[in-house]
Each structure stands twice: as C-alpha cells, then as structure tokens.
Amino acid sequence: MKRIILLFLISLITIEVFSQELSLSSPDQKITVNISLSSQLNYDVMVDSNMMISNGTIDMQLSKEIFLSYILSVKSTKTKNVNETIIAQIPVSRKNIPDHYNELTITFKNNFAVIFRAYNDGVAYRIATNFKDSITVVNETAAFNFVNGAHAYAPVVTKRPDEDVFHTSFEELYTHKSIDSFSANDYMFTPVLTETADNIKVAITESDLDDYPGMFLQGTAGNGFSGTFAPYPLEEKVVEGDYPQKVVTKRADYIAKTKGTRNFPWRVMLIAREDKELPTNDLVYRLASPTKIENASWIHPGKCTDEWIIDINLFNVPFKSGINTATYKYYIDFAKRFGLDRIMMDAGWSNTKDLFDINPHLNMDTLAAFAQQQGIKLSMWTLAMTLDKQLDSALKQFQQWGVDFIMTDFIDRDDQKTVNFYKRITEACAKAHIMIMFHGAYPPKGFNRTYPNNITREAVLGSEYNAWSDKPTSSHNCIIPFTRMLAGPLDYEPGLLDNATPQQFKPIWGKVMSQTTRCQQLAMFVVYDNPLQIFSGNPSQGLMEPAFMQLLGSVPTTWDTTIITDARVGAYIITARKHGNSWFIAGITDTTARDLTVPLSFLSAGNYTATICKDGINANRNAMDYAIEEKTLTANDALQIHLAPGGGFLVGLKKE
What we know:
Blueprint lengths: L1 H17 L1 E6 L5 E7 L3 E7 L2 E12 L12 E14 L8 E13 L3 E8 L2 E9 L4 E3 L1 E7 L5 E4 L20 E4 L8 E3 L2 E4 L5 E7 L7 E5 L4 E6 L3 E7 L5 E7 L4 E3 L2 E3 L2 E7 L10 H5 L14 E4 L19 H14 L3 E4 L4 E2 L2 E5 L5 H11 L2 E7 H6 L1 H10 L4 E5 L6 H16 L3 E4 L8 H4 L3 E4 L16 H4 L40 H10 L4 E4 L3 H5 L2 H9 L6 E8 L3 E8 L2 E8 L4 E6 L8 E8 L10 E8 L4 E6 L4 E8 L1
Parallel strand pairs: 23-24, 23-31, 24-27, 27-28, 28-29, 29-30
Antiparallel strand pairs: 1-2, 2-3, 3-4, 4-10, 5-6, 6-7, 7-8, 8-21, 8-22, 9-20, 10-17, 11-12, 11-14, 13-16, 14-15, 15-22, 16-17, 18-19, 25-26, 32-33, 33-34, 34-39, 35-38, 36-37, 36-39
Helix pairs in contact: 3-4
C-alpha cells in the first residue's frame, strides 16, 4: 500500500511538472518568452511571432543531489510591470534611460528561482537561490539555441601556450560564420552577435556580474552556443617578464563558492530588427545593480593623452624625448592648448613591481605642481599585481600628486577570484575619489552603472595592435559598435596621426600608423562609447595641425542623446550625439568607399555653425589627407559626405 501511495504521489508530481507552461511578453507585445517546465527548464524567444531562440536551457548544479532542474515544482509565480527612467550618473550615450519591462519570477520548492524580463529591445533571465548557508556552484547551464541558418560575429579566444583557454586579454578579431561551424573547441567571450536569415540580430552577453565567474560561450557544432565558466583557481604562479602577472596552475571542480541567498548574473539577449538599433541598446546598463556611489560629483569624464603607443617618439622638440620630466611637461602643455583634461603617464614611470621606485629621470613633485598650475590632471598606469600589493599606500600617493584617474593592466582573467579583485580595487579607488580603467580586462557588463568610477575598460582589439600587427582594420572597427560596445564603454585609444592605406601599412614599433584615414581616427571619438577617451596620436604632429586638434579637443565624451542614423554591421555606421546645445555627427566605413546622406531632421529649429572634417580628395591614396570647412546648416538640410576606403568624417554643430 505504501508503495502504491508513493507511486501515486510521484505521478502527481510528474503531471504537475509536465503541465507547466508560462509566457511573458514585452511591453509592446512584440517579443515573447515561452517557458516550459518539464524535466528541464526550457524557453523559446519569439520576435514578431518568429522563433529566434528555440529550446534554450537553464540549470544550475550545486552538488550531485542539488540542482535547479531536480523536480521542477513551482511554489509561486509573480509578475510585475516597471516603467521608470534611470538618470545616468555618467551619461555614456544618453542621460535619461527609459527602463520599461515586464517581469516574471518563478519560485520553485527547491530553494531556486528564475527571474525573466522582457523589454522592447531584448530579453534577460537570472537564477536566484535561497539557501541558509553558503553554497558551492559546480556548474551553470546556459544553452542558447537558434533557428536554422543563423550566423554569428564571435571573438574566438586564441589559446595561449602553457595556459588554459580562460586566460585571455579579451582582445580578439570577430569571426563571422554560421553558428553550426563553431565547434566545442571554440571558446568565445561575450558579447557574441548572432543574425538570423531574416536579418534579426540577437546579441548574447551578461550583466550584473558579481562574486561569480564571467560567462564564455562554447560552440556546439549545432545551431547554438553553450555557456561555460572558468573553474575557481586553487593554485597560481607568477609569470615573470616585463609585465609579471598571475596565472592559474590548478583549478577546482566547481566554478564558485558564494552566499546561499543571492541573485546570479543576468543572461542577456539584446534584440534588433535593424542594425542601427544595436549600438544604442543599453540593456546591459539597465539590468545592472544601481549605483553604490551616491555622490558622483568627483567623477570627471573627459579626454586624456597617452604616450605608450607612439613610444614617445616626439620631434621638433629641444629635449631628449622619453620618460622624463621635460617630456611630460610637453604633454601637459599640449593637453592644455587643445582642451584635453589630463595626461596619462604610462608604463615606465615607475618600476612595474614597485610603484614607489620611480624612474630617476622623473621629478614627480615638479610634474604635479606644473600640472596643477596648468589645470591638467596626471593619470598613472599601474600593473594590476603591483597595485593589489601596494593599494592603500599607492592611492594615498596618487592623491598627493592630484591624480584622479589610474589604469591597471595585465589581469587577463574573469574567474570568480578575479571578478572580486575588480570590485575590491574599484571600491578602494572610490573611497579615494579616484577613477579607474582596467586593461587586459573583460568588458564592464553593467559594472560601470554600479561603480561609475570604473569609468571605462579596454576589452577590445584597439589602436595599440597597429604597432605589431595588421589586425585593426577598418572592417574590424565597423564591427565593434555592434558587438563589444553593447557591454559598456571601451578604451580603443584612437587618434593616430600617421595614417596609411592597407597596401601601404606596416606595423612599426616607434612609428605606429593606422590602416584608416585620418578622419576615421577622428570619428571614433564620437562613434565609440567612452566617457574618458584617450588620444594616442603623436602631439608633435598634432601641433603642426592646430585646426584638426582643436576640433578633436572640442568633442565631448558624455552625451545627452545618441541617434544612429544609418548602419550596417561590419560595413559602416553614422552616429549623431547631442551634448548641451551642440551636436556631433561622425561616421566610419570599412574598405569600401561610400557616399552617404545624413538628414539633419533631428536638429531643433534655428541655424547651426557646422565644422566639417572629411576625407580629402586624395585620401584613397594618402590616408592622411583631409579637409576642414565651415558652413551654416539647419534641420531642413542633409549632409552629403564622401568617405574614402577606410574613411570617416566628423561634424561639429553649434547652435547660433
């Protein structure tokens, strides 16, 4: 009799599990998530009644006996509609951010819950747990299965010798091919951008990453990707060299140990019907935890110089250029003249292993006093491992020099221990009222909303690669706004003033050039989201072209509004941004020359004085060729712009 009763109860549970189907739609009813609770938790994503993601899978394993999908018995469901506005403390692309979504929380009887959100421009879900004691997460399942024929732009990790695949600087080119051609040996960091046969784009990434490893995607040789995570590091060793760093030599059989009651990172799918909708999709920011810094008035976005990429190869100067006091005074004067806010003192100002072992050719007190006199801030490069060791004393020293912005470099991981390093360093910098930028880093993934003093991050194959490779092509530059930029601000470091065509280009350390026109280098200051843009060009060249540098120096780095007037992934983009009463419009193209029309109907009534910098008539042969002109424009006008191969343009509009 007991056995019969037990079998009867099991049958009831089975009926309950297999009969559960739930649905959630976006506020405009055009995106729908259908959730199925059977032996697994699966979901489909429909866009305009067309299937985009089919049979996606969600699970989390804490032990052999404890995992989310074990007897999916629903305890309760809860829905809510939110229609609010987020006021961005640091407006990366817009100041007032509508936050409108529908949410469904499914709470299970096994102490797990899954929260779904549907927006008009994307879908997200996160797992939550409610255990009294701390937990060990063995693994998480995040399977994204797309309709047949889908393709993807994916940054596949190049595995390093003697290190596992989870060691990466998050700087790769984007491979574009069918999803089913990515194998289980292909590991990709996110965002990864997919496109269906009818050209709907779905970008996969995450948000609100905290006390947990970042999500990579792994190929399946099928129509989808599977989330994968770096196991927890048990043992590390220091790899010596010019820039020492820690690498993992032994990993655990789990990915995280963490609090038993918590929310885990959002798994995010950004959705766009047109390519031009993607670069302004700030869903990752909206999903992040609200700011931990109530008063952010001490955070000052702006523009900075950097000398490392050009190897301080100055000319027309009366001193020996290098890491010395005279050189940095020259950079301070340059920044002052052209409206930049600060200079970076990059690697070499101190011993990489000791921030207090200062280069003997530098007098930091003299430099600090000179910078203060000129109204220019000093910014300092640091090695991550060294900053971690000397954090408290180093921050105090930086404060004494008037430093309000530092870079830390060579991290190259995103396991749980490393993710917690980012938070600990950023919190310490916030207490010291210092902004920080991470290089050799994973993308922000919403962290810049929670801690706005983490003003930007690298996580992009940018200008520096011109010094030793031919990777930063104009086509690559035209992929970035639709991929990497979706996860938050990026430090590309544009502004190279030595420019060549791809046929003329050579990677030369000490005489670095770009494979783009001069105007594409200028346009990236507007096209790419970055509240603290870094100019990497040679100031000696810049001083010879004051009109160009004055235009570059006038470009803001935070924006009230952003509009993408036209775009195609990997081909071109035209971006219009408003700051106060001024507009800046910029565009870049791949290796194809283009004639573009830019309607100005987004302008308010009245006359605008336009400063136009565009590719010169010979820019197809001499990529340094450009022309600057001024004219008066109104909202009734349309710009006609010719872009040379690898070209660009920038227009500054001031209301009269």
